[in-house]
Design goal:
about 500 residues; 8-stranded mixed beta sheet; 10 strands; about 60% helix; globular; Nucleotide-diphossugar_trans
């Protein structure tokens, strides 16, 4: 009930009771204080990794500036040798990928010659469930198109194919959700499931693992993917031909390479990773990895391992747990899928920071596999596998420091004795030691050879001119990736926990 308040001017004023007004004021103060604390906390969390990386560069440059010439030479040769090793290992992987690439092309030619009749009869194929994992607010503009594509374009016996849409959303999105469920009512090959209480891709997949789908193989796809119409069939052929295969990882191809120069470089990078590095590493070290999308799992194995929702890159974590369990992973270049690259630097930065932090999480958790014995009877990890895992989990993470320390060393030299000409710069950088030139040239030759092989395995969306640009800018890209790796480490040290989904357009 309003009270009548007297004022000095003699006029009566209506007002709220003093107790209620005090309570509202206190509540407003509490809300403001909470907002201030939360904003400050978020700001500290956002800026702490940046300040840590900035301090790392400043401290490193200062150390080299005060180091004597003998120490500088030692640092230089250590960094040059290690970077040469990494470049050499990369080119060996590239050369070993030539065989799988040739075999894949021959397999396609053979099937095409027979009118696309595959070796395994339809009746003998395993039952396949293609899973689309979607965070609906982020992918509401593309999900209907992707579902329609999978239902109508994928070439696989319909009595052995199911498409399952697993989506989560913090708020209802209509009429889209109703449209999705209406599609499932009219198509026996489609299941649409809104995963309750889900906050991540891992939650969606773990919910799927509780279902009795009746399928032998479960293929995991992010929502932005278009599997090649014959991609699933090639994967199932791999399972049919080798009963010991537990996971088939396909090749992911960027199809918006023409959008910007950045997407063009990402497209080349993906060709280098999926068509060269992954099959080459499998041939070199004897193991493969599930990479998050366009991966086919035997359903019992997926249900056994599931996904860890506490990991930023739950796919890499599950891949390494599969390795620890002795799973056999095959990389098949004919199991192709087309996806979107981020179209803005902000989206790319957030995506790669999440990947880099997720990789260090997974590396810390699973590096023990390098020296521990397999706990699975009959699954032995040989020395080659252990060294490959060491390169993947430890040397790869250390390479971020090798690249950036190399950069800091050069910057300190330039600051202390700024070169007056290009020849002066070369003398400062290489100390006039012939071995430095040889190591440098070996690294350059390794890089060019790797990209030459990439050129011959490039996808149809990568134009020939993109490879030379990628080659020229590759040193800059190495520094960029190394800096993102450092940010990932800094985020992990500072317990950064935010998750940023990649925008889909």
């Amino acid at each position: 009930m309003a009270s009548i308040l007297h004022s000095d001017d003699g006029i009566l004023h209506e007002g709220k009771p003093a107790g209620r007004q005090s309570s509202l004021t206190s509540g407003k103060m509490f809300q403001d204080l909470y907002w201030f604390i939360k904003t400050t906390s978020d700001g500290v969390q956002d800026w702490t990794p940046f300040l840590m990386v900035l301090s790392y560069f400043a401290f490193s440059i200062c150390i080299y500036m005060v180091a004597d010439s003998g120490a500088m030479k030692v640092f230089w040769f250590v960094y040059l040798w290690t970077n040469t090793y990494i470049a050499g290992a990369t080119v060996i992987e590239a050369m070993l990928s030539v065989g799988p690439s040739h075999d894949a092309k021959m397999a396609v030619a053979k099937v095409a010659k027979k009118g696309w009749v595959f070796p395994t009869p339809d009746a003998d194929l395993l039952k396949l469930d293609i899973i689309i994992v979607a965070y609906l607010p982020n992918e509401q503009d593309i999900i209907l198109d992707r579902v329609d594509y999978l239902l109508n374009k994928v070439v696989y016996p319909r009595d052995k194919l199911c498409v399952t849409v697993l989506y989560n959303t913090p708020v209802p999105i209509e009429p889209l959700e109703t449209q999705l469920h209406e599609m499932s009512k009219g198509n026996p090959n489609l299941r649409v499931i809104k995963v309750p209480n889900s906050k991540s891709k891992a939650d969606n997949i773990n919910y799927y693992c509780t279902l009795n789908t009746g399928c032998d193989v479960s293929a995991i796809y992010d929502c932005d993917h278009y599997p090649h119409p014959y991609g699933p069939r090639w994967a199932m052929e791999r399972f049919a031909q080798d009963p010991d295969t537990d996971i088939v990882q396909g090749r992911c191809i960027i199809f918006n390479a023409d959008a910007t120069l950045m997407t063009a470089m990402i497209a080349v990078e993906f060709d280098k990773i999926y068509a060269v590095s992954h099959p080459g590493r499998t041939a070199m070290f004897g193991f493969g990895l599930f990479c998050g999308s366009n991966g086919y799992w035997r359903t019992p194995l997926l249900k056994k391992l599931k996904m860890d929702e506490t990991m930023l890159t739950e796919d890499i974590d599950s891949a390494l747990r599969a390795f620890g369990a002795g799973a056999k992973v095959a990389h098949d270049l004919n199991v192709t899928s087309f996806e979107l690259a981020p179209t803005t630097m902000s989206a790319l930065w957030k995506q790669r920071l999440r990947w880099s932090q997720g990789w260090i999480q997974a590396s810390i958790r699973h590096v023990h596999l390098v020296w521990t014995k397999s706990e699975v009877e009959g699954k032995h990890r040989n020395g080659t596998m252990r060294f490959g895992l060491l390169s993947l989990l430890l040397i790869r993470e250390l390479s971020y420091y090798l690249v950036t320390q190399y950069l800091c060393l050069v910057v300190s030299i330039i600051i202390m004795n700024f070169p007056q000409s290009g020849s002066d710069l070369l003398k400062l950088v290489f100390f006039q030691y012939p071995v430095a030139w040889w190591l440098f040239m070996l690294s350059v030759i390794s890089m060019i050879a790797t990209l030459y092989i990439t050129f011959h395995t490039r996808s149809e969306f990568v134009r020939w001119w993109m490879i030379p640009i990628f080659t020229v800018t590759y040193p800059i890209q190495l520094v960029f990736m190394a800096v993102m790796g450092l940010f990932g480490h800094a985020r992990q040290v500072s317990k950064y926990v935010k998750w940023n989904p990649t925008p889909r357009t």
